[in-house]
Amino acid sequence: MGNDSTVSTDPSPPVISLRDAELRFGDRVLWHDLDLDVEPGEFIAVLGPNGTGKTSLLKVLLGQHSLSTGSARINGKNVHTGNSAIGYIPQQRGIDQHTPMRGRDLVRMGIDGHRWGPGRLSRVRRRKVDELLAAVGAADYADAPAGTLSGGELQRLRVAQALANDPSVLLCDEPLLSLDLHHQNVVAGLLHDQRVKRNTSVVFVTHEINPILPYVDRVLYIVGGHFLVGTTAEVMTSASLTSLYGSPVEVVRVGGRLIVVGGEAECVDHHIHDDDSTVERGAI
Amino acid sequence: MSVQDIFGSLFTFEDYGELVALLTNSLIAAGLLGVVGGLISVFVMARDIPFAVHGISELSFAGAAFALLVGFDVVSGSIIGSIIAALIIGIGGARASEKNAIIGVLMPFGLGLAILFLALYDGRAASKFGLLTGQIVAITPGQITTLVVCSLVVLLVLAVIWRPLMFASLDPEVARAKGVPVSVLTVVFMLTLGLAVALSVQVVGVLLVLALLITPAAAATQLSASPVWVPVLSVIFAVTSSVGGILIALGSPVVPISPFVTTISFLIYLVCRLVGQRRMKHLHRRRTARAADEHEKTVSPA
């Protein structure tokens, strides 16, 4: 069910292309028959309860998990580890205040952290880091130890780090988690601005669609092995989600925000602890 | 006994110049170990694994004690012991808590083995004591060569893997996404750490390895977060401790080297910590100021 039926008429090839993709851990199928094309510059939100394989989808695209069947391509090439076409923003982790890393070092590692050797000081690289810092508005605290930065400041740096190698797609794993409402909006807006400027696709795994609601082109909603792909208007309706969850779900629009009520019972059955560590909150 | 008497019995500084000349090799080795310790300790801090250093040193002790018992080279014994420990810890647990448990299990086992080997050994008692408290002054020219070669190997490996290892230590998820072989680097680093521990055991002994492999970077990170300054300061601190410790100990016929090394190392940390506290206060004030600025901007958009 729920296959994406829209055939692209755009001449530019899709950045991400999944065909008949199935992911299983042992005898547990997380999702199957997933067909998805993500166009250049497209912003796609991946929603669903915990353990439905949202983070695992990102790991497939990163080449860290293998599909059990089907294919996953990025820019027409099979997914592989160390793909420079990908910028990755991981779930936020606390950083100790004495960690030997400044804000600018986090960004710099996105440029050349994976290369061998001790690395030399380079004016070109420094200018590149400064440009990235300026683009996300992080120049003020670039030289502060990363461990002394606020969550919002760190996420700006994460965006700059992920953009470092001019990727064609940004994979974001709950980048707004543990931010207050204001900073959720700030970081979401920043991601949107950058993808528009650079025509970078964004795959955004989240529990909370509201901060990104104005920017999202399409939604991939996964529940217990089934999924729906479509525009927000198509997917985020009571009828669509009720049939997806197989139990009554109501989607209410309140003051420009979407509130999803119900649907918790279903996710208990399919709860697999892979990489998601947060508690499902029912409202999405 | 007055303080003067105690001081007099601890230090004589007789024939100091000749002693220094005699021990040039030991001083060079200690300086080199300072460089190794200073650099390795940066990663020990970045990866937050001081406990692993201690665990490895106890198995290094067991290896050295076994070598002593069977009449094998003690330096090689301690290297073998610490590399086995480093491998077990490096491969054993993926999560930090798991790693700590494995180290906690290994440590008493290693120490128990060492005590057994020493109990069976009926040679000179000073050799036993040397393992615990360091013995670089009593080391043979052949062993010094081993130390120098191993130190150079550690430095070379570190130079090659420096950037990806730093990336993997500070930001493992993104490093993995960028294709950095995070797990392989962990094992390579643990082997390097094992070697460094075994080498440092020769200077400060099993019990005090932490003074050369943790304290230098712990002190340096109080002062800076720069990827250039932290290793530089850390090396300066470690070399000051190791070489300075020997130079002071030469003036004393009774006290071994290690207390001087650990005391210098501790004092450096203490000073850095005091300076670092002021620095942290300043940094936190700056953060509060930035938050206030941002709040003002959102409340009254220009």
Secondary structure elements and pairings:
The complex is a heterodimer of chains A (284) and B (302).
Chain A: E1 16-25, E2 28-38, E3 43-47, H1 54-61, E4 69-74, E5 77-78, E6 86-89, H2 103-112, H3 123-135, H4 151-163, E7 169-173, H5 181-198, E8 201-205, E9 218-223, E10 226-230, H6 232-235, H7 238-245, E11 249-254, E12 257-262, H8 264-269
Parallel strand pairs in A: 3-8, 3-9, 6-7, 7-8
Antiparallel strand pairs in A: 1-2, 1-4, 4-5, 9-10, 11-12
Helix pairs in contact in A: 2-3, 2-4, 3-4, 4-5
Chain B: H1 3-10, H2 16-22, H3 24-47, H4 50-70, H5 74-92, H6 96-120, H7 125-133, H8 141-170, H9 172-177, H10 182-204, H11 210-213, H12 215-223, H13 229-249, H14 258-299
Helix pairs in contact in B: 3-8, 3-10, 3-12, 3-13, 4-5, 4-6, 4-7, 4-10, 5-6, 5-10, 7-10, 8-10, 12-13, 12-14, 13-14
Structure at a glance:
With 284 residues, chain A is of the alpha/beta class. In chain A, 28% of the residues lie in helices and 25% in strands.
Q: Descriptors for this entry?
A:
heterodimer, A: 284 residues, alpha/beta, Rossmann fold, four-stranded antiparallel beta sheet, 8 helices, 28% helix, 25% strand, B: 302 residues, mainly alpha
Order of helices and strands of chain B: HHHHHHHHHHHHHH
Regions with little confidence, pLDDT below 50 for 5+ residues of chain B: none
Distance between the termini of chain B: 76 Å
Number of domains of chain A: 1
Helix percentage range of chain B = over 70%
Number of helices of chain B: 14
Query: Would you count the extended β strands of chain A for me?
Result: 12
Q: Hey, roughly how much beta strand do the residues of chain A contain? A: 25-35%
pLDDT averaged residue by residue of chain B:
88
Structural class from helices and strands of chain B?
A: mainly alpha
Average pLDDT across residues of chain A? 88
The whole-angstrom Rg of chain B is 22 Å
Order of helices and strands of chain A: EEEHEEEHHHEHEEEHHEEH
Please compute the radius of gyration of chain A using only Cα atoms. 19 Å
Write down the CATH class of chain A. Alpha Beta
Determine the most extensive contact between two protein chains. Answer: A-B, 44 and 42 residues
- The helix content of chain A is 25-40%
Task: Report the portion of residues of chain B in β strands.
Answer: under 5%
Q: Describe the largest sheet of chain B.
A: none
